[in-house]
Design brief:
single chain, Porin, 8-stranded antiparallel barrel, 53% strand, elongated
Length: 223
Amino acid sequence: MSALCPVLPERCHPEGASRPRGPKPRVTTSLLLVSIALTAFPLESFAQQPPPGLVEVKEGTRKGFWFGLDLGVGGESNDVGAPGYSDLFYQPTISLRAGGTVGSNLRLGGEVLSWFDEEGDAVASLSSALFVAQFYPLSSAGLYLKGGLGVGRNAIDFNDGFNVGDTGFAGLLGAGYELRLGRRLYLNPVVDLVGHSYSGRLGSGYTERLVNFGLGVLFQSGK
């Protein structure tokens, strides 16, 4: 039978040829309902699929290598020469993190977090180099708690190359959230509390702390 039959019936039934009798109305109605059902089924299946040319981003578990970059602002205070801490002094901060994923609830890695204060021909800095662990209470959510231990450095660098500072112990407690932007990219707000303890160049120990508020991106390898 020609494909033109629906629009050109004469191609199927030339003049003078006997035409088959059409089906009874009840049978015709049944066939029409079956055709509609068969047509609707593939359309419904097609609607559940992503449009051609687009890649569907699905939530996945944490895996593989990860790298994070954060920019923020931090409030520094210390107890040098006083029984209590000084008022918080806010300046810019930058943080670099990288490591591997142990499972959907745990990431391990290293982090360098620095605070800077430029005054005249000198730049004061408070830096931490830490081993960090990020624990995710819910494997399907982006909230995590962070802890870290490492080395802290309080330094002043002058334009003529001269520098002075103390090196001591550093510890970190913090929290963050990984908001998924794509298959491997996350928006990452963080809050950190960093503490430094120094013996001091003159033999008198002191402590310094930093309250950091950051916003950055995190890249994760894997699928």
